[in-house]
Write a structure and sequence with these properties.
The chain has about 260 residues and is an alpha+beta fold. A 4-stranded antiparallel beta sheet has the order 1-6-7-5. A 4-stranded antiparallel beta sheet has the order 2-3-4-8. Strands 9-10 form a two-stranded antiparallel sheet. It binds zinc ion (ZN).
Amino acid sequence: MPEGDTIHYAASRIRPVLQGHVPDSIETPHPRFGRDRWPEKLAGRAVRSVDAHGKHLFLRFEGDLTVHSQLRMTGSWRVLDGPRRPSATAWLVLRRGDRTVVQLNGPVLELMTESRTRFDQRLAQLGPDILAPELDAERFLRRLREDDPTRPIGDALLDQRTIPGIGNMWKCEGCFEAGIDPWRQTGEVSDAEALAIVHACRPRMQRSAADGNPRRHQRIYGAAGRPCPRCGSRIESRGQGDSNRTTYWCPACQA
Ligand SMILES: [Zn+2]
């Protein structure tokens, strides 16, 4: 599942192709866009900026129009060399020069006005991006303390209102690096401990956002039954939270 670093990596690949330029062509091959006329609405407009916030990506065009994408479990962005025929799963294809930017499989892809991106409920309530150049720690802690104090800290960190960008893998790795049990109730986790998890994730996610390779930071995710890389005890796994995301942790050295 794409997490914040993957979205920031996609934005950094798309930016040099589109930012400051009018795309040569725009297509929406997926049938769901049949009558939406995006190519006509966006024709002749330059892309002002390509922004990532948490797991959301925004292509901001001139004239107050923005393409908003959220990849959830299935979607992806690709930047391809050379002219390509859009694949059957392409929802949006933007060409400029010899490069093609493709959005595959949605599942959230919408054209909205710039002002709607500020007032849309889902977007307006997003917390501070874990990958922002300067982390807004105060706002992160405020949002965390507004949440249910009985919620396990691992699950609370997946809430996009608290700290968008951390997904299930980074939640496991961050709790492991900080030595904190993801099952502890949030109300019993100190501010310093919560920040330690975020500060463990941030530099690793920044590296992954730069090189597109999150896997090399995996020390505990997916490693159930194997020895803990820190203490050698057996790594456990169990589903956590409303969406039952498989959580990996070492019961011996995560307190
Ligand atoms: Zn351990």
